[in-house]
Amino acid sequence: MSDSSTAPASPVVVEAWFDLQCPDCLRALDDVRALREKYGDRLDVQLRHFPLAKHKHAYAAAQAAEEAFAQGGGWPYAEALLARTAELGERGEQVLLEVATELGLDTEEFDTALIDGRHLLTVDADEAEGKAIKVTGTPTYVVDGERLDGGQSQDGLRARIEEITDRLLSG
Questions:
Q1: How far is CA 163 from CA 33, 74, 76, in A?
Q2: What is the pLDDT of residues 53-100, one digit of tens each?
Q3: 138 contact partners, CB below 8 Å, separation of at least 6
């Protein structure tokens, strides 16, 4: 018999459906950071890709982020890339490699990954799942099966995520 009061609880999973060329997702990073600070390792924020057709470089950015995750620098890469959404829109995919260089990631491997398409299936699967659960814009969050759409307004989203997280953590 185990004592559940001393066993580490599984973290609450928050799926963050982002387009890495989306200015709204850049603003949503403040909420993601605040949630991580408040809950620490009791919250697992997972980046899910939902590249929007209106953002020409979002699909490649999603693939690049997957390569960054493969190299152990996923969230720092995604955050750095989101900080440069306007530049990505203006200058294109060379920004993807520049961010990788700045973070000390293997840019040759990045370049190869973008050419050989090794992360296409992951991005396509995320996009398909997003459509299946009715993600229509970014950012959108899914917590405990509840979809919270931030594509129209992010007002109150963090409070709602905290409410769900607190309920789940209290058991």
A1: 16, 27, 26
A2: 999 999 999 999 999 999 999 999 999 999 999 999 999 999 999 999
A3: 17, 18, 19, 22, 24, 25, 50, 52, 150, 151
* Helix (H), strand (E), coil (C) string for 60-97: HHHHHHHHHHHCCCHHHHHHHHHCCHHHHHHHCCHHHH
**Distance of alpha carbon 65 from alpha carbon 63, whole angstroms:** 5
pLDDT in tens, 144-170: 999 998 766 677 889 999 999 999 999
User: CB atoms < 10 A from the CB of 47, how many?
Assistant: 22
Neighbouring residues of 23: CB distance < 8 A, sequence distance ≥ 6: 85, 86
Cα angle at 143 between 3 and 35, to 5 degrees?
80
Do you know the residue count of the chain? 171
Contacts (Cβ under 8 Å, ≥6 apart) of 56: 21, 89, 92
Residue pair 14/142 in contact (Cβ under 8 Å)? The answer is yes
State pTM to two decimals. 0.90
Q: Select from 42, 49, 64 the least CA-distant residue to 15.
A: 49
- Residue in the block written with tokens 């659960």: 133
Sheet containing 146-149: give its strands across: 43-49, 12-18, 140-143, 146-149
